[in-house]
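Hey, can you fold this one?
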Amino acid sequence: MTAPRPVDPRPVDPRPVGPAVPLAPEPGEAVARAMAGLDGLADRPPAEHVEAFERVHAALTDALAAGAA
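Sure. Predicted structure:
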């Protein structure tokens, strides 16, 4: 007579292994896209510079935060 095999009490997870959301772009790509916001800035009126710098700063902050995660 054979002894019964013990049953594993943990259920099998049917979800695939790996991230559930797409991976973020490489930090270098995000930085390059952010810096592209400064392209042509010299040709624009100085009154538009502050807004452009603020957008680039926000994008760089996001890229830095994503890289630290």
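The radius of gyration is 25 Å. Let me know if you want another pass with a different chain boundary.
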